[in-house]
Amino acid sequence: MKDAINRIASMTYGVELEYTGASRDKVAKAVAEAVGGTARYVGSHLSNWTVTMPDGRKWQVESDASVTGSASGWHGRGGEVVTPILTYADMDTLQKVVRAMRAAGAKVDATCGSHVHVGAKDMTAKQIQNLVKVFYRQEELILKAAGVRRERLNWYTRRQDNGFVEKVAAMRNPTMDALADAYYAGASGRHSHYCTARYRTLNLHNLWQGGKRTVEFRLFEGTLHAGEIRANVLLALTLTAYAMDAKATSAGGARRAYRDASGKYDLRVLLLRLGWIGDEFKNPRKHMMARVGGSAAWKDGAAHGRGRRAA
């Protein structure tokens, strides 16, 4: 994908940043200072604070029952920061917020995750089909690069369902209704916010429920490292853009198994395909490459010059 930054510049996204270790009022005030806005305690069922930016966009600092210390009330020492709708031009602001949260005492533990929503209101059923197939094919490599722990994959971030992907891959002329029927097959609470189908690495629930019209990459571990957050957002945006631009994708089949001996090589090939080229992607590439094994230059290791060389 040529000139990836220009391609994703008009795309929208939002991030959920789960954290623990700091009271919500303190985190809300830190977010307000970072964005030049004002913080106000709303105190709804999520015990949330709202931070309003000068342009009217709102950040939420709210409770999350799955996170350590996320008690009800303004004093809860855990929860999540939910961004407003952002674009790539807001990346510096997002990173500034992450650093401000950390400075306010926020941290992450094993209960925390980080979710990236990508705006999908203009995506066609064919583009959603492409995204499902591309993500499924590379899922094991992506999970390894993202450092996803086995425990998270047991419930809150389950892998894509094989039966669902097989149904989607077999569709000659997919429709949103047909995709929904395949996605919710066997799930409970289809019309509920907490439908069981949403707990997947690639969550499509918001395409049909809640009016958000997003696809959610909910695989990422909790982090308050601004560089890692940027890399996660870029991966979600460029994967979605690739699916939107692709005329056709692989007809499915099994997930590609992750091989540590060729991990860096395989990931480099994937990132190049997504347009991760140039200085803008230098640090994000570094973060994504850190957790995979092998050599970026050689398919099966560089010992004695053996193996296939990367282009």
Strand order in space, largest sheet? 2-3-4-5-1-6-8-7
Catalogue the unreliable spans.
none
Mean pLDDT across residues: 91
- Report the order of strands and helices: HEHEEEEHEHHHHEEHHH
Overall strand count = 8
Q: Could you tell me how far the N terminus lies from the C terminus, measured between alpha carbons in angstroms?
A: 15 Å
Q: What is the makeup of the main sheet?
A: 8 strands, antiparallel
Give the CA-based shape. globular
Structural class: alpha+beta
Helix content: 25-40%
Proportion of residues in β-strands? 5-15%
Cα radius of gyration in angstroms: 20 Å
List the SSEs and their pairings.
Blueprint: H1 4-8, E1 13-20, H2 24-35, E2 38-41, E3 49-52, E4 58-62, E5 78-82, H3 91-103, E6 113-119, H4 125-137, H5 139-146, H6 162-169, H7 176-183, E7 202-203, E8 214-221, H8 226-245, H9 263-273, H10 282-289
Antiparallel strand pairs: 1-5, 1-6, 2-3, 3-4, 4-5, 6-8, 7-8
Helix pairs in contact: 2-3, 3-8, 4-8, 8-10
Overview of the molecule:
The chain is 34% helix and 14% strand. The chain is an alpha+beta fold. The chain has an eight-stranded antiparallel β-sheet, with helices on one face. It starts with a helix and ends in a 22-residue tail after the last helix. The mean pLDDT is 91.
